[in-house]
Write a structure and sequence with these properties.
The chain is α+β, with helices and mostly antiparallel strands. It has two domains: about 70 residues, no CATH class; about 55 residues. About 25% of the residues lie in helices and about 40% in strands. The protein contains three helices and five strands; from the N terminus they run H-H-E-E-H-E-E-E. The strands form two sheets. It has a three-stranded antiparallel beta sheet, covered by helices on one side. The longest helix has 14 residues. The two termini are about 35 Å apart. Its EC number is 6.1.1.20. One of its GO terms (biological process) is phenylalanyl-tRNA aminoacylation. GO terms for molecular function: ATP binding; phenylalanine-tRNA ligase activity; tRNA binding. It comes from Crypturellus undulatus. InterPro entries: aa-tRNA-synth_II, aa-tRNA-synth_II/BPL/LPL, Phenylalanyl-tRNA_Synthase.
Length: about 130
Amino acid sequence: YRSAWRLEEARRALLRTHTTACSARLLHRLAQQAPFAPGRWFSLERVFRNEAVDATHLAEFHQVEGVVAERGLGLGHLLGVLREFFRKMGISQLRFKPAYNPYTEPSVEVFSYHPGLKRWVEVGNSGVFRP
């Protein structure tokens, strides 16, 4: 930001801050296929953020991404997948809140009740990719 660009700085290693680029590459590859073939792809990767550490934020965590490609899917299907995903991890108390993501519509944030904190905390974010 308003500093001189230096090649040696640009070549420095950077810890991954999200896995969304992996999904973008997958979506690009899917768009090149003819004919369309339904499928499911998931990734679980460690990511790092410059976060103020507190009871609900860490500087290091795992990001789960999933892409389900099929004709006729909608928000109800997405919410069902999210409920089942969290249920299998032992999380059953969920709330969904409409959200904004630049690449999905509709988008929802996922909250779960944390009995230790005695409040609802965000445990995920999701949405339906736009065509």
